[in-house]
Amino acid sequence: MTASGPPADFQRTTRDSYDAIAPAYAEFSRGELAAKPLERGVLAVFAELAAAGGGGLPVADVGCGTGRVTAHLSELGLGLDVFGIDLSPQMLAVARQDHPGLRFEEGSMLALGLPDASLGGLLAWYSTIHVPDEELPRVFAGFHRVLAPGAPVQLGFQVGDEPLRMTEALGEEVSLVFHRRQPERVAALLRAAGLEVRAVVRKERDTEGPFPERAPQGFVLARRPQEA
User: Fold this and answer.
1) Statement: the pTM of the whole predicted model exceeds 0.90
2) Element (H, E) at 50
3) What is the mean pLDDT of the chain?
4) Residues facing residue 156 across a β-bridge
5) How far is the C-alpha of 86 from the C-alpha of 129, rounded, in Å?
6) Three-class DSSP category at 153
7) What pLDDT was estimated at residue 4?
């Protein structure tokens, strides 16, 4: 599964940065979900809705990285057929090694190589954070296209008004931009793409525990409307 045409500059730098940190990121993030009950609750609601309204179709974790959330969804006991999509070959290599029973494919959310209405759910868990503002409408239109009527989409992201730029992470040189956004603005863009917003949640910054946060967190749940 590949994007059509050459990747944009931000895709190249994002891919190369995550390629550089893939093994270290997998080790760093191991156990993160276990320390975050609210996030597990958000994912559980999404998974239940996908199981109930997705028509038995596959569920895509778009921007899956090392596959830890893909695996979490698969292990919830709801019978979801979950697979991951990511730009970074090295992150995917880690995902395939750590979760050999799951499917992981290389691809871009800017040009999902999936048939129309082929997904029973779509998760973009801290992956749209690397997409510039001007590309979000295109991304959300693509989400609408690949979701079956009634199928949910769940986003997770950092809340804010200014991007965070990183040139070093986990001991490696990187070039990453984290676009922080207000949940209401993300919801408005999803509506503009024809998606029906079901929940908008803002979590204040968690400064304690093993995974302290630099910013508040946002979660928006939407779905492709049922056809009349």
Assistant:
1) yes
2) helix 37-53
3) 94
4) 125, 219
5) 14
6) strand
7) 44
Helix (H) or strand (E) holding 100: none
Length of the chain: 228
The CA distance from 176 to 165, in Å, is 6
What is the residue whose two structure tokens read 């590309």? 135
Summarize pLDDT for 55-84 with one digit per residue, the tens: 899 999 999 999 999 999 999 999 999 999
Q: How far is CA 189 from CA 176, 183, 206, in A?
A: 23, 10, 27
Reading the block at residue 45, the tokens are: 């609601």
Strands 152-158 and 121-125: parallel
Structure tokens at 47: 């998974």
Would you state the structure tokens that stand for residue 102, as one six-digit string? Answer: 């799951």
d(CA 73, CA 67): 10
> In which residue are the tokens 């830890």 written?
68
